[in-house]
Structure formats: structure tokens, C-alpha cells
Design goal:
Helix content is about 50%, strand content about 20%. It has about 220 residues and is of the alpha+beta class. A hairpin with a 2-residue loop joins strand 5 and strand 6. Helix 1 packs parallel to helix 3 and helix 3 packs across helix 4. The N and C termini lie far apart (about 75 Å). This is Membrane protein. It holds the Pfam family DUF421. It is found in: Cell membrane.
């Protein structure tokens, strides 16, 4: 009877630890839930669920070992997130990059097939977006999460994120027919560099900048 009680007690402790680990990972990632938005988020959920589900009823793995595994996985997740947000090569390797599927009414077949998008998938996404004539599509970009962002011919008040997390979005620059040199000059005119910028959007022919907190303003 004592052994059964001990087993239930250890299981309860592991369950509580797993629950707390999930809350800590959610809070530290700045999110309000575990809904995945990137590959890292999906891996985080899968592995964390596997750790908790696979270990919680295994009496051969003690509470201390379980805690160590949770700590190691949490550390791996946040190191990966940090590198993804601050290193372009790591971000490109893990999250991938947006793929230009349609350019000025022409389907970029090579890009579509390399991205694993079939013609039927593309047709479905265009229909759901209300696109009847593909020639009216100036640009369609397949995002990392599988969504298709469509810019129609003649569409105004467009917003393009030129800089995200201190990194230049070269496809967004190409969408407005500009170069990195032009962007550097525009930022310099406002007293910023790319590394100083948290986000910069191209709105109505102007660049709207949101700098990192340590940058008080143009200088």
C-alpha cells in the first residue's frame, strides 16, 4: 500500500512540475498560449508533451532526473529562440524564408514546386482570397506558416515590413523596387541603422520606424 501511495505521490509531483514547466515556457516566450507560430514553437510543444507524457508514469525516472530534463529542454528552446531572433542564418535555416509564388501575374513554377505547393493548392488559396484573374495579382508570397500573402495590381496603402528584429527583409525591399543601399540611406536620414531598428514598415511611400528601447530617437 505504501509503495502504491509513493508511486501516486511521485506521479503527482511530476505532473505538477510538467504543468509549471509549460507555464514558465509560455510566460518566458511572451505568449499567452501554446499555439505554434513557428517551427520552434511546434517542436517545443511536441517534445515537451513527449517528455511529460513519457516520463510521468515511468517510475524508473526520478523527480530530480525529470526536473533536469525539463530544465535542459527549456534552455535549448530559449537559446534557439534567441539565435533565431538575432542571427539571420539561423533564422533562415530554422524558419525558412517567404517564397515568391506569383510575380506580376506570372506563376513562378520553380519556386512553387520547390516550396511543395501543388497547382491545386495554389488555385484553392487564390479562390479563398477572392482572386478570379491571376493577371490581377502583382505578387503572391508563400509565408513560413503556409499562408499566402497576395498583393493585387493597383492596390494602395500597402504595408511592407522592411526590417524585422534588426534584420532586413530583402523580399519586401524587392516588392517596392528598392535596394539595401536605399534603405540604409533612408535610415541614416532619420538617425538609425538597421541594427537599431526593431521594426520598420513602408507605408504610403514613407518608412515608419520602431526602434529598440535603448535608442531614444533620431540623433
Amino acid at each position: 500500500m505504501a509503495l502504491i501511495q509513493d508511486a501516486y505521490f511521485i506521479t503527482a509531483i511530476k505532473l505538477i512540475m510538467g504543468f509549471l514547466a509549460m507555464i514558465i515556457q509560455i510566460k518566458l516566450s511572451g505568449k499567452s498560449n501554446l499555439a505554434p507560430s513557428t517551427i520552434v514553437d511546434q517542436l517545443q510543444n511536441y517534445v515537451l508533451g513527449g517528455i511529460i507524457g513519457g516520463v510521468i508514469y515511468n517510475m524508473d525516472i526520478g523527480v530530480l532526473q525529470f526536473m533536469n530534463v525539463l530544465l535542459i529542454w527549456t534552455l535549448i528552446v530559449f537559446i534557439t529562440k534567441y539565435l533565431t531572433n538575432h542571427n539571420r542564418l539561423v533564422k533562415r535555416f530554422i524558419d525558412g524564408t517567404p517564397v515568391n509564388i506569383i510575380e506580376r501575374g506570372q506563376i513562378q513554377v520553380d519556386n512553387a514546386t520547390q516550396a511543395g505547393m501543388s497547382a491545386s493548392d495554389l488555385a484553392f488559396k487564390l479562390r479563398t482570397a477572392g482572386i478570379v484573374d491571376i493577371r490581377q495579382v502583382r505578387r503572391a508570397i508563400l509565408e513560413q506558416n503556409g499562408q499566402l500573402t497576395i498583393v493585387e495590381v493597383g492596390e494602395r496603402n500597402l504595408s511592407f515590413p522592411l526590417i524585422v528584429d534588426g534584420q532586413v527583409d530583402e523580399q519586401a525591399l524587392d516588392a517596392i523596387d528598392q535596394t539595401p543601399e536605399w534603405l540604409d540611406a533612408e535610415l541614416a536620414a532619420q538617425g538609425y541603422t538597421v541594427a537599431n531598428v526593431y521594426m520598420a514598415n513602408y507605408l504610403g511611400g514613407q518608412i515608419v520606424i520602431a526602434p529598440y528601447p535603448q535608442i531614444d530617437g533620431p540623433h
